[in-house]
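May I ask for whichever protein you like with its backbone structure tokens?
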Amino acid sequence: MPPPLADALAYLDAHVNFETAPVRRSMPTLDRIAAVCTWLGDPQRAYPVVHLTGTNGKGSTARMISSMLAAHGLSVGTYTSPHLERINERMVWEGEPIDDETLADALLGLEPIEEHLALRLTHFEVLTAAALRWFADLAVDVAVLEVGLGGRWDATNVADATVAVVTNVGLDHAEVIGPTRADIATEKAGIVKPGCTLVLGETDPDLVPIFEARNAESVWLRDRDFGCVRNRVAVGGRVVDVRTPSGVLDDLLVPLRGPHQGDNAACAVAATEAFFGRALDRDVVADAFHTVKGPGRFEVVRRRPLVVLDGAHNPDGARALRATLEDDLGGRKPDVIVAGFTGERDPGEMLAAMDAGRARLVVATKPPSPRGVDPATVAAAAEALGVRAEVVPSVTGAVERALAVAAEDDFVLVTGSLHAVGEARTVLVEA
């Protein structure tokens, strides 16, 4: 690691990180990030913003939107979280992560501002301020910003969206933004600002009014104004037909696996159409989708044995994983599962949701995070489902154990926390 980047990451890591801290968050506020952005000249106002939130699917949707905007000739900055292997992945310009030197400059440039303003940002606020400033320095035509958690008090909400996207609302992080789905919807609705177009993927009639009450200029509701009208398995992903207010774009190959990617694609196409305010050319969208990648999202990294990485980090994600196994792999079951969870996740609920009871072996591990669930608890949950389980504390060791016991024709699934999937990916892709 270059010395400047090492110094920058040391500075970053000195800030409280609520992605890994095993404690409740402090009282939410946008005051700190707003003060820093004001000092920087409000970079978040230098370009239009497409802002995304949702319990699941927002990362994939953000990548699709960014690809489509770029395919129309725009300079696009994309900010997502968390990362899988390197923190650079969170800030992307024209499809490429920020380089080490630029990242170091962007992070360390905030240190004197903190000192001058006599405040202390959080880890995520530092990254957000750095990304917003970098995009302004690049003079991007548009920034695609993914919410870290919730919406209303998320650091990204210092920006006002031209288009706000809500993929769905599930019971995740309920201890912070819950406890009910209505509470979570209210938090996510906080990104909807007057004058924006809201692309709403959540269709629960009890929740839709929460978003409509935010007085967006217009609301596009999935299955009413847009949607995925055909969704089938294809080689390497899904082929979908997407309907928008302007018509139907048919036979679009989305190179991501799982039926849920059809809804993500519909949200992405609708958001892009809303941004431009006109119908999209089907061939341009098709070309854009060809460039979309989803690392750690039902990603096949080996063939013999078949090894798949899937960051099913909450119950809705685990159910989507199960649906993907049924639809895309014809119901094939994983023979060996490497599983590591974080935070408030109930390992029994997670394993049952993904139908892990059909596996031969579960290798329980602990993600590289202070919030990692004790692997002995994961192993006990697997055994309660009738599956033999082993405990291997390190993710690297767990992956090595899974490969050692897997036959050439077996299927190995690595799942759970994105921290676990990220470490596994480093081992498997670079090996």
